[in-house]
Write a structure and sequence with these properties.
The structure is a single chain. The chain is α/β, with parallel strands linked by helices and 805 residues long. It is built from 19 helices and 23 strands. Strand 22, helix 19 and strand 23 form a beta-alpha-beta unit. The N terminus is likely disordered.
């Protein structure tokens, strides 16, 4: 095993190496493009006979419970072992798992996560992950990977549900199922084997190399709900049935158990078998079954709602205090110089709930020193030494707004991964064009937790750099250190929530009567240039991933557009080219592949508090969080075949927030597909791509047998409410067979990124289309709605023509 010293010098080297890598389109990764050949076929299985188009009318109907069970069902008996004997290969498998909980009467689920530090993965220095913050959860994530190890498993011979046919999740005889214990309904999932098992060296010669079996949900699970995972009739490559482990077989078949602890668990296992039987899953053919409970909505959100409410009370429900540091009229702004009339820099005072001075990078929530109740219900307190953080912001006013004096629509803007507050106001031209074209006034702060801050690189704008806030590259050093020791992961997720508070309070300053409108910087001839009647949100990339939580918790935001969005970093990371520069620090610090997959699943439980995955449920109609506006609307705008933000996670979010799809969404190819989301005719560019790039093309634009299954098509425009609209720059070839410099192949089918050989990254394409801006502007206004700017065809960018000729 190679020994690595992750000291300060190494971290500094990583920081310097990564300085130019954030949110870029290019990747130089090498390797096989996909672990599953597009030409391979899965075993024949009859699709669920729902009927062409009929699912578009029914799948947003919420399944109703048909049985009840007491809260806390599934909590293990006292004295449970630190490892689950159901999977002897890896201590903490299967996972997530109610076996790793304990009873807690103060939580909504009547249980609390109870991970033992002695069972946690250790890095190469021998330091285990400290589970303290995970043990504050009253359940598991609504969208984390579900893991176990099945030696010899062959998913194709088994007939397990693949990512290309999630509709098969609902088949009566599906071998891998996830059951809601109250509705008894199967959930939409797909199964895959970890394709990254050679990324790191094994930490011992006897360690099982994997791969882990990964089951991912295609629609997030209900907060506070209990679920059962059932694996049955699993096959190896020879088509032979894989026998269950000795302990599970004893539970299943009523055989003697090895210990009193295992016997004490027997009633819970019988409960699992009973519920599965009610759902039509018989115990005789089971390889493995276990249960887990999703964290309650309260537990997922109450910390950030608490700091929001405390901050609103501290400012008497008005604007936070702010200072204006610089007003730059007619600033030099590159290609946007002619349309940028004024740049305004300042600071807002936001209550600080981290234990670091001024809520700077490296701090975590300031919990009470002496707990008074359950760890799961403790709430952060304001920092007693620096009760307020002085947070830098930037706003820009468009030329048209100054010239006409017409108040502009107030909108927050969220920047990309490890970017800075200047993205939307200086170097990201599309934001300035949208402001000028549609009379918006955008303001920004950093995504605290995942920001680099600004550099002192503009002599004509000497307040661009904040020597306190922007020092040491913002959050980069903390991010790299965290990858080498995940005990520090709360430094990321807690600061992200503090950052959501910064956005919320900055929005209040924009629309409050005593806010920005009182300062001459935001006035013309004494008249305010901000329309204070409604607040909106627009963001891209990280701004699309973090924009959901800001929208969900804000008492003021009515509508949001999330560009190139996604959710569940546990799914996103290994499928993103952006993770490539950081992955070696992770893989070398935790070289065992089963550790790596466990950690990715584990961190989702905390990351839920800092990204879409933990808040998407509250953006569905009628599920708004306390203290927020009713009937919020969210428009998801993914780039098809995005190399940075895996496009399927936007589909998962759409199902979760009940966002119907603008149809048709994609062009077709020579390989037939089901559903109304795809044009039926074969597009010549798709055919040409298949001929020239058979290793990465599927003979269809979207790899799925039934693209966007479970998402109803929008019936008519304008459409009010949540929506999903997909934007495509086309395949790697044009219709005439020539190369398309803007095109990309579909993503691979396993958990690896779109490395070299997949074409151009369309991540930044949709936002720069004027018709995309027009669509967003129609959505981000009073009584706004989605309009059809694509004339009944798939929406495209960079000149891709969805027509057949």
């Amino acid at each position: 095993m190679r020994k690595i010293n992750w000291g300060g010098a190494i971290v500094l080297a990583w920081v310097l190496a990564l300085a130019g890598c954030m949110d870029e389109s290019d990747s130089s990764l090498a390797g096989s493009p996909t672990a599953i050949s597009p030409s391979e076929t899965l075993p024949d299985a009859a699709p669920v006979d729902i009927g062409e188009g009929s699912e578009e009318e029914t799948l947003f109907i919420r399944a109703q419970p048909v049985r009840t069970e007491p809260a806390g069902t599934g909590t293990p008996p006292a004295g449970a072992e630190r490892c689950d004997p159901l999977d002897p290969v890896y201590c903490l498998f299967p996972f997530p798992n109610n076996y790793f909980t304990t009873a807690d009467s103060q939580t909504d689920t009547k249980m609390r996560v109870n991970l033992n530090v002695l069972a946690m993965p250790k890095n190469i220095l021998g330091k285990p992950i400290d589970p303290t913050d995970w043990n504050r959860n009253d359940g598991f994530s609504p969208g984390q990977p579900i893991l176990t190890r099945v030696p010899g498993l062959d998913l194709q011979r088994t007939g397990a549900v693949p990512i290309t046919n999630i509709e098969a999740s609902l088949q009566r005889d599906q071998p891998i199922v996830l059951i809601d214990t109250l509705t008894l309904k199967k959930q939409l999932v797909w199964a895959e084997l970890d394709a990254n098992i050679t990324q790191g060296q094994l930490n011992s010669p006897t360690a099982d190399p994997g791969p882990a079996l990964i089951v991912r949900v295609a629609k997030n699970l209900e907060p506070g709900r209990r679920y059962i995972v059932a694996l049955r009739n699993l096959k190896n490559s020879a088509g032979e049935t894989i026998e269950p482990t000795a302990v599970f077989k004893a539970y299943r078949d009523g055989l003697p158990l090895a210990s009193a602890t295992q016997n004490a668990r027997k009633p819970l296992m019988e409960n699992i078998f009973s519920v599965l039987g009610l759902a039509g899953v018989e115990r005789e053919n089971l390889y493995l079954a276990w249960d887990f409970t999703v964290a309650s909505g309260r537990n997922l959100t109450e910390r950030v709602l608490h700091i929001r409410d405390q901050s609103i009370d501290a400012t008497a429900n008005k604007s936070p205090n702010f200072t204006i540091d610089a007003i730059v009229d007619n600033p030099e702004n590159g290609s946007a110089t002619d349309i940028t009339a004024r740049r305004i820099r300042g600071h807002i005072d936001v209550p600080c709930f981290l234990n670091s001075p001024n809520c700077l990078s490296g701090g975590t929530y300031n919990y009470p020193l002496v707990p008074t109740g359950s760890p799961a219900t403790e709430l952060p307190q304001r920092n007693p030494l620096t009760p307020n953080a002085s947070v830098p912001f930037i706003c820009s006013i468009a030329r048209k707004s100054i010239d006409t004096g017409e108040p502009a629509r107030a909108s927050l803007y969220g920047h990309g991964l490890l970017g800075s507050r200047d993205e939307g106001n200086t170097y990201d031209l599309n934001v300035r064009v949208m402001a000028e074209r549609h009379n918006f006034l955008f303001c920004m702060v950093d995504w605290a937790g995942l920001a680099t801050g600004n550099l002192p690189d503009d002599q004509n704008d000497n307040r661009k750099y904040d020597p306190l806030w922007d020092a040491a590259g913002g959050d980069i050093a903390n991010t790299v250190l965290m990858l080498t020791d995940f005990s520090g992961f709360p430094r990321l997720t807690d600061r992200l929530q503090q950052g959501f508070l910064h956005f919320t309070m900055r929005g209040r300053a924009m629309i409050s009567e005593n806010g920005f409108c009182t300062h001459p910087a935001f006035q013309k001839d004494g008249k305010c240039l901000i329309d204070r009647s409604e607040l909106f949100y627009d963001g891209n990339s990280q701004g699309g991933i973090n924009g959901g939580p800001v929208t969900a918790i804000s008492p003021d935001i009515q509508a949001a557009t999330l560009g190139v969005p996604g959710m569940a970093y546990s799914t996103l990371l290994q499928r993103s080219v952006d993770f490539a520069p950081y992955a070696p620090a992770f893989y070398e610090s935790y070289p065992a592949s089963l550790d790596q997959q466990f950690i990715l699943s584990l961190i989702q439980m905390l990351w839920d508090r800092g990204e879409n995955n933990g808040y998407a449920w509250s953006l569905a109609p009628g599920k708004e969080l306390p203290g927020t506006r009713l009937n919020k609307r969210v428009l998801l705008i993914p780039a098809f075949a995005d190399h940075q933000v895996y496009m399927n996670t936007a589909e998962i979010m759409a199902r979760t927030i009940e966002a119907p799809l603008q149809c048709p969404a994609v062009v077709g190819g020579p390989s037939p597909q089901r559903g109304r989301a795809v044009l039926k005719q074969a597009h010549p560019a798709v055919r040409a791509e298949q001929e020239q790039f058979p290793n990465v093309s599927f003979g269809r634009r979207h790899p799925d047998d039934h693209p966007y299954f479970g998402l109803p098509c929008i019936k008519k425009h304008p459409h009010a409410g949540n929506a999903l609209t997909v934007w495509d720059s086309g395949p790697m070839t044009n219709a005439d067979g020539s190369l398309n410099p803007n095109g990309s192949a579909p993503p691979p089918l396993d958990n690896r990124p779109m490395a070299t050989g997949y074409g151009a990254d369309p991540h930044g394409h949709p936002r720069n289309e004027e018709k995309n801006m027009d669509m967003k502007a129609a959505f981000l206004k009073k009584q706004g709605a989605l309009i059809d700017v694509c004339n009944g065809m798939p929406c495209t960018s960079r000149g891709f023509n969805p027509a057949l000729k």
